[in-house]
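Troubleshooting: if your tokenizer reports a length mismatch, compare your output against this known-good record of 415 residues.
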Amino acid sequence: MSAVAALSSRTFAALRVRNFRLYFIGQLISTSGTWMQSVAQGWLLLQITGSSVDLGIAVALQYAPMLVFGSYGGLVADRHEKRRILYLTQSGAGLLALALGVLVSTHHVTVDSIYAVAALLGVVNVFDLPGRQSFVQEMVGRDLIANAVSLNSVLMNSGRLIGPSVAAVTIALVGTAACFYLNAVSFIAVIVALALMKRADFTPMQTVEREKGQVRNGLRYVMETPRLRNVILAVAVVGTFAFNFTVTLPVFAHITFHQHSAANYGLLLGAMGLGAVIGGLVIAHRANPTPQLLAGLALGFGVFMTLTALAPSLRFAALALVPTGAFSIAFMSTANSTLQLNSSQSMRGRVMSLYGVAFMGVTPIGAPLIGYIIAESDPRVGLLVGAVLTLAMAVGLLVSLRGGESRRGVAEALS
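Known-good structure output:
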């Protein structure tokens, strides 16, 4: 086998599993549609209100249910069959996209209706995210989990690369309603993929019987496990202050560079999506996520996000967003793999729901806050706040690692 073939075989190892391959194809189509809707929704709100605060509120409403009920969604994932959960959640998300498309095309769309659809989609995501995250190991088994998680990040960000580009053209030629209709249709691909999977090929997974205090037990389990706790806290910082690109990038293009075309917003999202695909593929080649790798990736994310914030032109910003996307998704993939590999089977749904809370559930706090900072200052400041806090978190992780090594050294010397 040639070196290139060996590299490809290792990088795409999880795709040799039929069920995961079906899932990958279905999710790639659906994720592209989801990013089309994200671009169209943000652009629609800016057209109606022109306010970064309103944009932040819409994003916050979409993730508020995860903040409040995320742990319960993880418990549902631990108790029930993951594929059945995904049938329901993917169907629900498709119907909501269809409803928003009808509202736009019939000229009945309002800011309140956009808020309502965003909030309902958030309720769907409470159950969808932990279901999807914990379903990965059921499809590929423990040995391929890190590779599958990284490839899952690649497909999510391939959608980010494809979706905004298609959305920009669709908005310009047809209108925003078409983006919502196309997203609704895209969920059919996931439902078909789920239906074609072979139950016999799934890795048997233990389900949890109903009893009191299960959500609280999941929280205690994470807090008493240092590796899990540190990763969740790191993801929370990034999720709150840095991963607000659906708020920062539209106004960055619109206000900072005076670009009033959806195509330029799509350029920024597409550049970040390209970087994310590259970062996901690089991480997919690594078999073992480590705390040192996680800290280094956070450091790189913060550095390139700073360069993006200080970009003198739209083109320079797009170039800086490529490595920003690469480091950000490599960081999130490594965090995800670390949590899945270091959590017990009976707790995995609840652990991954806390990952969802830390990554997405904190958005109701971060999105309006960053939106307010931008409104009171400048989009560059909003990006810089996320960059600086990400760098501080990376330094904290490195200090924690060194402290842990020192304590181990003392313990070994005394033993």
